[in-house]
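Hi R.,

As promised on Friday, here is the backbone we talked about, encoded as structure tokens. Could you run it through your design pipeline when you get a chance and send me back a sequence?
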């Protein structure tokens, strides 16, 4: 094998490692951003065990990815030794047993990507005179199209989901049911804003398997004007087959939601 062919093998293998570590870097960046945005009110809703548990899950995920990358590097070295004959010495490597990584991201929980339909709310249906939140079940909620209004009225794109009205105290909600892989960690992200600073917004994720089996509920507290980004990492129950994500606005005023994503990374 020529030098260029050997270098090509190395490049391909290193690109694979870079992809693994890049995905983890994105997750770590999102987690760090979430930590900086967490409020005292959020912390009041978590027990010390829940906080520690979340940190342990994050570190376990990182250790799984690093373990995979380490094994990949050893595989590259072994392949090069085979290509170069006797020019490499014996390789001795001890890796922590993979069963300590629960779950193993690729083998047990392959990435699903974002499973939310119309999470950016840009699809408002075929009738421009009657825009809809396509893919969502709604109560007292509707899309708001920017139509030249200031950029601050939406978080991204041209449409945002608005729950309630600034002039009424009607409760409002939007929800969507999606499939899930039981036993796998899922990440929920979204942007939210309140206008005016009156309503309380909650997010709920209810897992199902022939009936409700588990519910995650978080009160986001009273929102003021301006968008905030939220990231939650959830452990899906082992036998769950679907999840319903619901945003609930209570009290006078309106809340806006944008860029909802939900998936196993």
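Update: got your reply. Pasting your designed sequence below so it's all in one thread:
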């Amino acid at each position: 094998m020529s030098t260029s062919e050997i270098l090509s093998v190395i490049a391909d293998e290193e690109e694979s490692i870079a992809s693994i570590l890049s995905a983890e870097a994105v997750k770590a960046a999102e987690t760090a951003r979430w930590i900086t945005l967490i409020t005292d009110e959020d912390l009041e809703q978590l027990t010390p065990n829940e906080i520690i548990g979340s940190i342990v899950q994050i570190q376990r995920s990182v250790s799984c990815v690093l373990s995979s990358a380490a094994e990949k590097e050893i595989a590259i070295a072994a392949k090069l030794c085979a290509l170069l004959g006797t020019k490499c010495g014996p390789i001795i490597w001890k890796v922590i047993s993979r069963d300590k990584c629960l779950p193993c991201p690729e083998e047990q929980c392959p990435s699903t990507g974002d499973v939310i339909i119309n999470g950016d709310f840009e699809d408002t249906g075929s009738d421009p005179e009657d825009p809809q939140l396509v893919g969502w079940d709604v109560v007292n909620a509707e899309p708001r199209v920017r139509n030249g209004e200031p950029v601050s009225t939406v978080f991204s794109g041209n449409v945002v989901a608005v729950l309630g009205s600034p002039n009424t105290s009607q409760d409002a909600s939007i929800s969507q049911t999606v499939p899930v892989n039981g036993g796998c960690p899922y990440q929920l992200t979204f942007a939210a804003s309140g206008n005016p600073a009156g309503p309380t917004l909650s997010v709920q994720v209810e897992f199902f398997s022939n009936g409700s089996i588990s519910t995650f509920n978080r009160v986001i507290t009273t929102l003021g004007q301006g968008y905030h980004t939220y990231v939650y990492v959830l452990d899906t129950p082992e036998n769950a087959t679907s999840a319903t994500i619901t945003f609930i606005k209570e009290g006078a005023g309106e809340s806006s939601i944008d860029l909802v994503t939900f998936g196993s990374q």
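One thing I noticed while checking it: The chain has two domains: 3-100, 137-263.

Thanks again,
M.
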